[in-house]
Amino acid sequence: MIDTFKTLERADFDSRHPLTQVLDAARFNADGLMPAIAQQHDTGEVLMMAWMNREALMETLRTGRVCYWSRSRGKLWRKGESSGQQQHLRAAALDCDGDTLLLQVDQTGPACHSGRRSCFYVALEGNEARIASAPLIDPDTLYGKA
């Protein structure tokens, strides 16, 4: 069996390949999921990591609105459906092994459920963890009081 991603390593620049063939070769985990890293398209800021299954990825590519798979809810999760803080896809790419997605997005407001722009706000420095950013919006405002 030919490894599609090994073939793609030697593919000509700007060559085109059928999406279904590439996704058939993509390496989703045993649960049918793949990590997806969301990055702000114009600044390079890493916003969050979530999981996508093939259905979420196809919906994202089809609609341009980022959709993930919620492991806790066991269903598709359209970013912003509760909070209104949507992600609009600008570009999507698989890594060289076909097991991680990078999504270039246009994020509306905070990406994190904590109300912060990025989920990566706990800076690990020496023997301490420092909170490196403040919430832009109180989470109770985003999601209602628990």
From TrEMBL:
Main location: cytoplasm
Reactions accelerated catalytically: 1-(5-phospho-beta-D-ribosyl)-5'-AMP + H2O = 1-(5-phospho-beta-D-ribosyl)-5-[(5-phospho-beta-D-ribosylamino)methylideneamino]imidazole-4-carboxamide
InterPro entries with a match to the protein in the record: PRA-CH, PRib_AMP_CycHydrolase_dom, PRib_AMP_CycHydrolase_sf
Coiled coil: none
EC id: 3.5.4.19
An example molecular function term from Gene Ontology annotations: phosphoribosyl-AMP cyclohydrolase activity
Compartment annotation: Cytoplasm
Cofactor: Mg(2+); Zn(2+)
Enzyme class (EC, first level): hydrolase
Keywords: Amino-acid biosynthesis, Cytoplasm, Histidine biosynthesis, Hydrolase, Magnesium, Metal-binding, Zinc
Pathway assigned to this chain's UniProt record: Amino-acid biosynthesis; L-histidine biosynthesis; L-histidine from 5-phospho-alpha-D-ribose 1-diphosphate: step 3/9
Residues annotated as domain Phosphoribosyl-AMP cyclohydrolase: 48-121
Origin superkingdom: Bacteria
Protein purpose: Catalyzes the hydrolysis of the adenine ring of phosphoribosyl-AMP.
NCBIfam families linked to this entry: PRK00051.1 (NF000768)
Assembly with partners or alone: Homodimer.
Name of protein: Phosphoribosyl-AMP cyclohydrolase
